[in-house]
UniProtKB/TrEMBL annotation:
It comes from Hoyosella rhizosphaerae. The keyword Transmembrane applies. Keywords: Membrane, Transmembrane, Transmembrane helix. InterPro entries: DUF485. The chain crosses the membrane at residues 47-69, 81-104. It comes from the Bacteria. This is Membrane protein. The keyword Transmembrane applies. The lineage of its organism: Bacteria, Bacillati, Actinomycetota, Actinomycetes, Mycobacteriales. Signal peptide: none annotated.
Length: 125
């Protein structure tokens, strides 16, 4: 398979976007050691690990109650709706809530820092 060579756009052509250069493996390794990258990684982990632990714990409680506390899970709340159904629906609500919270967090905390790192890595040809 052959590919056409990459040609830089004309400097005075406003319709042609600049071409991002491809960083080398050594540049990626050096970037991983920078304080900016370490800060980005630390911020991501500070959010993701606790949220994952929280949700897995919440799900485990739900499953264990379903297995070992069938009387409690079958307790009617109103009409044919019982505690188990409400907790099952709460699993969906929790999932969407965590997802929304992550989107807000990523837009505010991660994306600007990642864009800066990407710009430093790619530059423009």
């Amino acid at each position: 398979m052959t590919t056409a060579p990459v040609v830089a756009p004309e400097a005075d052509d406003p319709l042609t976007p600049p071409i991002a250069r491809i960083a080398t493996a050594d540049e990626f390794v050096r970037m991983q050691a920078t304080p900016e990258f370490q800060d980005l990684r630390r911020r991501l982990r500070r959010f993701v690990f606790p949220m994952t632990g929280f949700f897995l714990g919440w799900y485990l409680i739900y499953v264990l109650l379903g297995v070992y506390a069938t009387g409690f899970m079958g307790t009617p709340v109103f009409g044919n709706i019982n505690v188990g159904i409400l907790m099952g629906l709460a699993q969906f609500v929790t999932t969407f809530g965590i997802t929304g919270w992550y989107i807000i967090f990523a837009n505010r905390e991660l994306d600007p820092r990642a864009a800066k790192i990407r710009e430093e890595m790619e530059g423009f040809a």
